[in-house]
Design goal:
Elements lengths: L1 H39 L9 H17 L52 E3 L6 E3 L7
Antiparallel strand pairs: 1-2
C-alpha cells in the first residue's frame, strides 16, 4: 500500500511541476521582455529627439517670417511697445487682454499678431490717425 500511495504522490508532484513549469517559463519570459523594453528607452532624451528638433525648427521659422509682433507683443522690426490707439505716450487704454493681460492690445491680442492697424478713422469727424510705426516695404 505504501508503494501505491508513494507512486501516486510522485505522479501528482510530477504533474504539478509539469503544469507549473510553462507558467513559470512564461512569467520569466514576460519579465525579460519588460527588462528589454526598459533598456530600449534607457538612453532616450525627448528634448534631443528628431521629432522635437523638427517641431522647434518649424515653429521658429513660421513665427519669425509671418508675425509682425513678437511673443511679448512688441513690434518686431523696431522693438517698440505701442498701444493700438497709436499714441506713443499711451499707457494702455483698452480693457485687459484675455490672452496676455496687457491693456495695449486692441480687439485682438498683439502677441505674435500678423497684422498692423494702418490707420484709425473716426465717424462724424474728418480726423484720421495714421500709424507712424507701420513698416515701409
Amino acid at each position: 500500500m505504501n508503494t501505491d500511495g508513494e507512486s501516486n504522490e510522485a505522479n501528482n508532484s510530477l504533474r504539478m511541476s509539469l503544469r507549473e513549469r510553462p507558467r513559470k517559463l512564461h512569467a520569466e519570459r514576460k519579465l525579460r521582455e519588460r527588462c528589454d523594453e526598459l533598456k530600449f528607452l534607457d538612453d532616450f532624451d525627448p528634448e534631443k529627439s528628431n521629432r522635437e528638433k523638427r517641431k522647434l525648427k518649424r515653429k521658429g521659422s513660421q513665427q519669425s517670417s509671418r508675425s509682425l509682433y513678437d511673443e511679448y507683443g512688441l513690434i518686431r522690426h523696431n522693438g517698440l511697445d505701442v498701444c493700438d490707439c497709436m499714441n506713443e505716450d499711451c499707457p494702455g487704454c483698452w480693457f485687459e487682454c484675455e490672452n496676455c493681460g496687457s491693456t495695449k492690445c486692441g480687439l485682438q491680442c498683439r502677441v505674435n499678431r500678423k497684422f498692423f492697424y494702418e490707420s484709425i478713422a473716426f465717424d462724424g469727424k474728418d480726423a484720421i490717425i495714421k500709424n507712424k510705426h507701420f513698416p515701409s516695404k
